[in-house]
Amino acid sequence: MADKDDHLESMMETTVKSDTIYDGKILTLKVNTVELPNMKYAKREIALHARGVGIIALTNRGTMYMVRQYRAGVGEVLLEIPAGLVDPGESPQEAAVRELQEEIKRQPESLVYLLDAYSSPGFTNEKLSLFLARGLNYSPKDLDSTEFLEVEEYPVEDLFEMVKNFDIVDAKSIIAIQYAYYECYLPNREEFLKHREGMSAQRDDDNL
Question: Which pTM does this prediction carry?
Answer without folding.
Answer: 0.88
